[in-house]
Write a structure and sequence with these properties.
alpha+beta; 206 residues; 2 domains
Length: 206
């Protein structure tokens, strides 16, 4: 029973992702209800069953204890992963960050203003456009637009389509980065992390 419930919880998340991706249910229902409520509590029930089975197996530990312990560890890991993900998604980090706050690189549909983020500072030199494009792709972005002095890309979010968009603008003496979420959900600080990853990549490129 506990094994079936433990497997059911991740399958429910996968089903929710597919339902949201195909437009059959809303993002709020798929993420907040199906995943962070029903699937989460299913994992807790599985953990409770596994714990009960382990306690009952102690009298016959040599025959049943090892298997019961393995099931308990698996159920605990799945429940822990759900709790960790739920807490991460609840962190309301900034959803639009830039290295230049007074004259930020333009992003379609983002009037701003962007906000600062620790470790997200302009590269004090002119990075080659090819290098900027390479860093975008290496960070997981699909390039959507290339201009003479800028490149823009989108990082698809498998989990419920929580996409991120980024632009790298190149000017004499400075290369700026802007990263913004294409959604209004808390993302656990993913926008800042992506911006820092782009900066780190650009710092090594010429």
């Amino acid at each position: 029973m506990s094994v079936a419930l433990a497997v059911l919880a991740p399958l429910m998340v996968l089903a929710a992702v597919l339902l949201v991706g195909n437009g059959l249910v809303s993002l709020d229902f798929g993420l907040d209800v199906l995943t962070l409520k029903i699937a989460l509590w299913t994992s807790f029930v599985a953990l409770a069953f596994a714990l009960g089975s382990f306690v009952l197996s102690l009298g016959q530990f040599q025959r049943l204890g090892a298997a019961s312990l393995a099931v308990l560890v698996v159920c605990a890991a799945i429940s822990g992963l759900f709790v960790w993900q739920a807490r991460a998604l609840a962190v309301a980090g900034p959803s639009d960050v830039s290295t230049n706050l007074t004259d930020p690189p333009a992003l379609p549909g983002k009037a701003g203003p962007p906000v600062p983020c620790a470790g997200v500072v302009a590269i004090p030199r002119q990075v080659a456009l090819e290098a900027a494009s390479y860093v975008l792709v290496e960070t997981g972005f699909a390039i959507e637009d290339v201009q003479r002095f800028s490149v823009r890309g989108v990082k698809p979010g498998f989990w419920f389509g929580l996409d991120q968009e980024a632009v790298i603008r190149i000017r004499p003496g400075a290369t700026d980065v802007r990263v913004a979420a294409r959604h209004d959900r808390p993302d656990g600080g993913a926008t800042c992390e992506l911006a820092r990853a782009l900066i780190a990549g650009l710092q090594t490129e010429r």
